[in-house]
Amino acid sequence: MPSPYRALFAEPGTKAFSAAGFLGRMPLSMMGIGVVTMVSQLTGRYGLAGGLSATVALAVAAVGPQVSRLVDRHGQRRVLRPATLVALTAAAGLLLAAHFGWPDWVLFACAAGIGTVPSLGAMIRARWAALYRGTPKLHTAYSFESVVDEVCFIFGPIISIGLSTAWFPEAGPLLAACFLAAGVFWLTAQHATEPEPHPRERRGGGSALRSTGLQVLVATFVATGTIFGAVDVVTVAFADERGHKGAASVVLALYAAGSCAAGVVFGVLRFSGAPERRWLLGVAAMAVSMIPLLLVGNLPLLAVALFVAGLSIAPTMITTMSLIEEHVPRAQLTEGMTWVSTGLAVGVALGSSVAGWVIDAAGAQAGYGVPAVSGAVAVAVGFLGYRRLRRPAAGRGGTVEQHGEREERHLA
């Protein structure tokens, strides 16, 4: 591991909360695909399976920011444990309802209840920010967390699908729930590194989404999430049309591996200048990388194209976290990070559904037009909102060096 990453863990408690965060984040990539695999095996109804998976994603998108807002006010331990217990109870209900063939409305009610699952990625990044705010180490920490995210997305679906198909249908979602419980309760037992809560007066507060800069980031990442959701669905269909459906998991793993590799390298680099420029360049790179997917004709070329496309993901996500630091009050940092994840989740659900409709109508190759169009929308939103990103609100986060650069630029 490069020395900047070793330096991250010099502070006491960093290894423990990072490990807990990794364990608790595995369900992010395991639960949705696990529900699809479980329900399709038990009932053979892929429409029901997809609907339940989308319900989980949308419920997390709707409830997640509210959970994170409570965390900012009352602290991680006081909020995460009861929220996780609600999510675990709902997950248990979903497994039982699927196993015993209960009515569909019970399945959907339980799937919606899983929406209280907390955003562990935001919680861990908030701990890093509390430790290293205003130092170059925070950039490295965000890079490390992006790599952890990609590792989860590489191995999570493989574990979930593998267990549900080789052992019993409920095994994937069950293990995801166990990971969630272990990760959250281990993390909340660590008091020394927990960020201080910021209780607000009754007359103050409001949602972090009131920040115009955060609005731009969230809107852009709805389009970006549409890219991710569409790529997943279309790649499975593309491989299936060529008689190698099982190869889709390997191809998609290479997509995540490209992002993982870029994140490792990005974390050891040091940049000068305004982060919003790097962010807009990253969004544009993601959009351009979708164009070759319209031209590939076989799986090996698709694998190469997706690996290259993945190279722009982690750097863009890392820079996004830095921008949230500038545009969201410190007392609402966890909520701000969760709103970006919410935008991604909404986009993934949208991309999956639209891509499925296009595939049914015109085939898998045409389906890659969905991420291409979504990339163009992301770039358009980014350009239109660029001026808002150049003006962080007074009193918001951001390093002393970044604020100094901005003052010099505006005086010039």
TrEMBL record:
Q: Mind listing the GO molecular function terms for this protein?
A: transmembrane transporter activity
State the protein's name. MFS transporter
Which stretch is the leader sequence? Answer: none
Give the subcellular location: Cell membrane
Is Glycoprotein there in the keyword field?
no
User: What residue ranges are annotated as transmembrane?
Assistant: 20-40, 46-67, 79-99, 105-126, 214-238, 250-272, 279-296, 302-324, 336-359, 365-386
Organism per entry: Streptomyces actinomycinicus
User: Which stretches make up the Major facilitator superfamily (MFS) profile domain?
Assistant: 213-412
* Statement: the UniProt record of this protein carries the keyword Transmembrane: yes
* Topology versus the membrane: Multi-pass membrane protein
